[in-house]
Amino acid sequence: MRKQHTETAARATAVLVAAATLASGTVAAGPAAWAADQNETGTTQTKKTVREQLEQTVAEATAKKDIQDKTSGGAYTADTYGILSDRLTDAQNLLDDPDTSDDRLQSALDALDKAVKNLKVASWTVNGVALTGDQTLTADIGLDAKPGSLTAIGSDGTKVDLSISGADERHPALGVTSGTAVAGAPRDGTRPSISVHLSWTSGQEQTAYGRSFWPAEDGTWTLSQNVALDAGNQPAETSVTIGGETVDITWDALGVKDGMVSMSGRAEGSVDGQKWRIDYTASRDGGCLIVCVWDHLIERKRSW
User: How do the domains of the chain map onto residue ranges?
Assistant: First the structure.
């Protein structure tokens, strides 16, 4: 009777599978294929033994030891490296004994792992300048120009990219740019946070006629210059060179006032985005200019 029920159930299952196949147009996977799928997707990685984990940590600690040796003991602080060295020796001795229990291996693993994580880099520099401080590593660093990036380098060779913020640039003179900023990184493990104060000055002051420019209210650097006017009413200056660029002076019409012959001119340009302007005055004593002009008009009137 039981066999009959089993066969009936099997036939019912076959009918259902066939019906599903006809309805979907696909071939249903059989029990064997289903079992294979479950076996494949259910595969898990084998966990490392305590001995294997300790061997891996010993390799990591040995790499730190090699760095300390290559830097003549200067890579890590003496106290934190001393602890690591002792824990490393203990672990190696336990690994040399194939009969060491897992409990003892686990204790050695925990102690060595802690020593590696507590290892402290002895010193840090940024741009060749040593950082100082306990809770925060700091320094004042002067640069030639605004930095695009900065990196802190540890005595063990570790590199930390610093973020630059709070940049403030000003122009103390025409052609000169000065600025300040802060470069830093948050605390990470045994390394304190980093906060470096930066300052820089770039460019060279541009002058004219041996004098400095002065800033106007609109930010333009300005200068006034008097030049001679010859007998032919031609100014002594026709151009000026600022920052390696020669600019023509634009002169206005000639004028006469209080016996003086004069004309005004202007030259303007920019240096590294900083605008400059020179206001010129060319003049000479008019002498008999007014009388001569009057006589000239009389002569013209007679000729009419």
Answer: 50-117, 124-203, 207-290
